[in-house]
Amino acid sequence: MTTGDVTTGDATTGDATTGRAIGLDEFRAEIRAWLAANLERKAPGAGDGGEARSDEQVAAARPLQRKLFDAGYAGLSFPREYGGRGLTGEYERVFREEARDYATPQFGGAGHVTFTAIARSMLAHASADFLSRHIPPILAGERLWCQFYSEPEAGSDLAGIRTTARRDGDRWVLNGSKIWSTGAHQADYAMCLARTDWDVPKHQGLTWFAVPTGAPGVTVRPIRQINGASGFCEAFLDDVVVTDEDIIGEVNQGWSVAQTMLVYERGAGSSSGVRVEPRELAPDLVELARRAGRLDDPLARQAIATAHINDYAQYHLGRRIAARLRSSAQPQPAVAAYGKLAAGVLSPIRARIGVEIGGAEALLWPEGADEAAALPATTYLNGRMVAIAAGTNEVQRNGIGERVLGLPREPSFDARKPFRDVVRDARSWDGRIG
User: Fold this and answer.
1) Which of 375, 353, 354 is nearest to 229 (CA)?
2) Is 149 exposed, middle or buried (0-12, 13-18, 19+ CB in 10 A)?
3) For the chain, which domains are there?
4) 3-state DSSP call for residue 136?
5) What are the residue numbers of the active site?
6) What would the pLDDT profile of 216-266 be if each residue is shown by its tens digit?
7) 418 - beta bridge partners?
8) CA nearest neighbour of 318 among 263, 262, 393
9) What gap in Å lies between CA 429 and CA 419, rounded to an integer?
10) pTM greater than 0.90
């Protein structure tokens, strides 16, 4: 399939073969035909495999991503000069709707952060040379990325990181540790936030670097989670060398990049995973009720309806947030927080509904069964994750209250002090204010 120029106005894409514009309906028909001819259908009730994927699953997803890339269906809304199609988000929505029943590339958590928060933040802030080197391999499935972001002493207070990047001639030397890095053990690169100036307030003096995860001095250790999987990792950087070519954005201006990343980390209007309009009545829960023999049980039916209403509300909330974000010239992480908060509140409810409907069917499955059989149990075990990861529900509420609703800000005692002094004073703080 060839790609052509994007026309303005009515959301159409040009067909380079005929020179005519292709509207969304014709685009949908093309996608439908291509998917049927090139991809396998998913098993009934199969999910996306969740955040943790095996090395074998990730390896198998790479050529499948390349297949999409070669056909022109990877990075539909990415600029054409970097391997995308330069289309609007409506084309991506159509593709997701048509591909929902097909086995598309699933990289787990590493794939999610690669194609959303990381790639989009790069497009907003990195140089053209950097993008030319890194975006096409991302879209082709050749490079997965992770975030070297949170640290043991800097989670919700993201500006409080202590990983250092020290200038050494024409190089930078990185030292420090990161934690909760999704998919880092399967990523090829990390987008790493480091402190490059300790003599300015904490929100200044931060810089983002591209770091190969296989570089000398980088150690990545998977963290075993409650469900037995390892979707998160801790990472250690010991005299890791990078150059100016690896900088994303500008030196000491990393907080502006972080603001963009937070928008996408919080869903960028997609409500953290509700990416396709839920037109069917919670198919996974309906199938679970069928297995448990509760399709006619009024309590189970009401629970399924509740889950469906929540899914539907999340999706359309996400679309409203996306429209708001598109209309703003500046990143608005506090607006994106509405979608993240909705997911953080409703995901545990949906996870519990699955267990309540399925009972033993939700918690037990035959040895050797496919991933769909274990999905209700793993979803329940991970049900609180969205309420914590990428900022807790409380952090989202604070951001909304202060930056959207205009409520009084919480007191801050370190925002204007040089970060070097903040760290020094913290060592002798006795808990008293003033």
Assistant:
1) 375
2) buried
3) 6-106 (1.10.540), 147-256 (2.40.110.10), 266-404 (1.20.140.10)
4) helix
5) 265
6) 999 999 998 877 778 889 999 999 999 999 999 999 999 999 989 888 877
7) 201
8) 263
9) 15
10) no
